[in-house]
Here is the input.
Amino acid sequence: MTLLRDEDLAAAFDHASRSYDTLVAANPGYHAHLRRSVRRIGLPGRGHGLRLLDLGCGTGASTAALRSLLPAAEVTAVDASAGMLGRAAAKPWADGVTFVHAPAERLTEAGVNGPFDAVFAAYVLRNVTDADAVLAVVRDLLRPGGRLCVHEYTLSGRQVDRAVWTLVCRGVVQPVATLLGDGLLYRYLWRSVVEFDTAGRFAHRLDTAGFDHVRVLPLPGWQTGIAHTFVARRPHEPGEEG
Ligand SMILES: C[S@@+](CC[C@H](N)C(=O)[O-])C[C@H]1O[C@@H](n2cnc3c(N)ncnc32)[C@H](O)[C@@H]1O
Here is the structure.
């Protein structure tokens, strides 16, 4: 599913990059929820010796969540929007963070090579043209036993959750974004969530894409029933220790 062509979406994010950090700072729990999802990956210690991929890193909020909990891990942060990526790369980072300008669909061509111990995809898979194709790429980049963590707006399927999502978008997000000149992107945000998988459907998609140990975990606050963390594993090879 795509609601804006890839290049139009990247251009819309380029424009929105100027105010992105301000908008997400006004979203209660945005950063805390990202950290909660990182904790749910279940990686040990401070991340010594681990290689992580932050897919669709945007202005670096998800990268910061990874680094705050796993400061010793090496992080490759990728985004298709030069504007968003530029904002992320301009922030002060300790050693071990690399930024790559590439679409999720063409990671290998951009020199992003596995194996990774974990992939974090926060608010990105709903935006890609072919989520199944991207999941196949991600699966191949993980080491056997490596974890995928998807943090995404995925509705529960209950009418009340869809109504809250519509109310938040129409009543708060879209008016502010329109004033900032980003109305198109945030109208797309509403529609992309309504038209994307429900949480149950997305869990099934992960299963079908060849992941195992798929878990769906709710996020708290106003996002209850609206956003979820999905943690899944690339299966071990036959005969390998599980
Ligand atoms: C809503 S932002 C989330 C950014 C960050 N992960 C966070 O949690 O704040 C989604 C990001 O995904 C990027 N994106 C969308 N489609 C993409 C694709 N096909 N490949 C790579 N990045 C993509 C956008 O450019 C944008 O920066």
